[in-house]
Amino acid sequence: MSEDTLSDLLRSVRLKGALFFHVECVAPWVTQAPRAEIMAPMVMPDAEHVMEYHVVIAGSCWAGVLDQPQVQLQQGDVIVFPHGDGHMLASEPGMRAAPDVDFLFGEQPPQLPFFLQQGPLASPDVPIADGGHASLLCGFLGCDRRPFNPLLAALPRMIHGRADENEDNRWITDFARLAAAESRAKRPGGEAVLERVSEMMFVDVLRRYLDRLPADQCGWLAGLRDRHVGRALGLMHEQPAHPWTSELLAERVGLSRSALHERFVQFLDLPPMHYLIHWRMQLASQMLLVSNAPLISIALETGYESEAAFSRAFKRTVGMPPSVWRRDHGAASRALTGRTSSASEPPADRPVQPLATS
Questions:
Q1: Is 121 helix (H, G, I), strand (E, B) or coil?
Q2: Residue 188, preceding peptide bond in cis (omega within 30° of 0)
Q3: Which CATH architecture does the domain made up of 226-337 adopt?
Q4: What is the pTM of this model?
Q5: Which of 200, 236, 306, 329 is 20 to 30 A off residue 123, Cα-Cα?
Q6: What residue spans define the domains of the chain?
Q7: CB atoms inside a 10 Å sphere around CB 76
Q8: What's the CA gap between 335 and 331, in Å, rounded?
Q9: Distance, CA of 151 to CA of 132 (rounded, Å)
Q10: Checking DSSP bridges between strand 134-143 and strand 78-81, what pairing results, if any?
């Protein structure tokens, strides 16, 4: 991995975190979270894809996707459900409950997170003891799914980040303490702090998941770890408008064209040039959403010499012309972000050529 390609991807798909619930649980207790898409309109209406996470700040509990075995969570552990699956959390494994999100339709607190109670006599003033009692922070992570987010397909239905995985890296425990303090104090700017630290938590969980991937694993993250595929991804992310060809890319990473093609397909199920097309369209889609830049400026930024060539590639890849994408998605995005700036022209020394298709 030569460059920080993961950060580049997360910026492009607009990763955003939110902490919504501080839950105090006293055994016996159980709660079922519905699919994230059911809650998304209430908690992250601007996100195209929503993931849910839980952090155990004290005590312990059990959690898991509804149709899979549950895992035990200890203090400092994090569990993330990247595909938004419905899941259970409970004081003991095997417990079941009906999903209940009626409280979300009521009045929101002046400052997030919501405080919730589970089980008898739950209270923020009751010390957390052993035996299934737990204090949880629960939140959401939003991101774009279209037109291209290769990370989502590479993630499992559940990621369990253990606080004791690496004694030299207790960042998750520190995150839990910080988030707990901010959620209780509700100081000015607290929601923004919790949003940022939840994003940092997710990146840390991803890095640890990447570190323990089996050697024979496929997918975008596994490709990122591969010496040759990771370097090729880094080059395309560093210079998306460069006039790449299969031959030039293979030469830069030290493989033959056929070997790079085979390796890329093995990990990402896409040839290198097809990946480049999709990545350029992801970048272009974001420029269309957050700026009023003319199409020719966006075309040049993403490796095209003409607006017509860019529009053809965008429609072929995304399924609609860029003007329609901007009309249907851009107004809402700009209203939510408050951004109306125009994309800058590409630097004069940046090589811009039509999209390579070899």
A1: coil
A2: no
A3: Orthogonal Bundle (1.10)
A4: 0.82
A5: 200
A6: 5-211, 226-337
A7: 21
A8: 6
A9: 34
A10: unpaired
